[in-house]
Amino acid sequence: MPRKIRSTFFGLVTLCLGRIRQEEGDEIFVEEDRNVYRRLIMKDGVPEGILFQGDIAHSGIWQYMIKSKIDISSMKIRFLRLRLLILRNRRSWEICVEK
Fold first, then answer.
1. In Å, what is the CA distance from 89 to each residue of 13, 76, 92?
2. What are phi and psi of 55, to 5 degrees?
3. How far apart are CA 22 and CA 9, in angstroms?
4. Per-residue pLDDT tens for 5-23?
5. CA distance 23 to 12
6. pTM here?
7. Does 81 score more than 80 pLDDT?
8. Residue 15: what pLDDT?
9. Exposed, middle or buried by CB within 10 Å (0-12, 13-18, 19+), for 50?
């Protein structure tokens, strides 16, 4: 299970899952605005860690993908605004992207 840290500091919710330090060969995706900061670390198409501040919605999905080492490199859309639905079929987990 990836390491998980959640805290609230002056009303700002922060969540870290997995590895949050950048290493050589990592891809870093950052999205921020006035109320939200999101950072994703990926290596070889597999998410290895996230840092969310503000809105931590859908963090359970990211925890599942980090733990299961799911390759999401084929998703050519903005990673951090994904609304993911996980559907259970008979053979494996499938990830469907809802726009």
1. 34, 24, 6
2. -80, 115
3. 24
4. 888 888 889 999 999 899 9
5. 27
6. 0.72
7. no
8. 93
9. buried
What is the CB neighbour count within 10 angstroms for residue 91?
6
Q: Work out the end-to-end distance of the chain between its first and last CA atoms, rounded to an integer number of angstroms.
A: 29
Write the DSSP assignment of the chain as a string of letters. Answer: ---EEEEEETTEEEEEEE--S--TT-EEEEEE-SS-EEEEEEETTEEEEEEEES--TTHHHHHHHHHHT---TT--S-GGG-EEEEEE-SSSEEEEEE-
Q: Please give the residue that has the higher pLDDT: either 78 or 86.
A: 78
pLDDT, one tens digit per residue, over 56-76 is 888 888 898 899 998 887 765
Q: Which long-range contacts (CB under 8 A, 24 or more apart) does 90-93 make?
A: 93/68
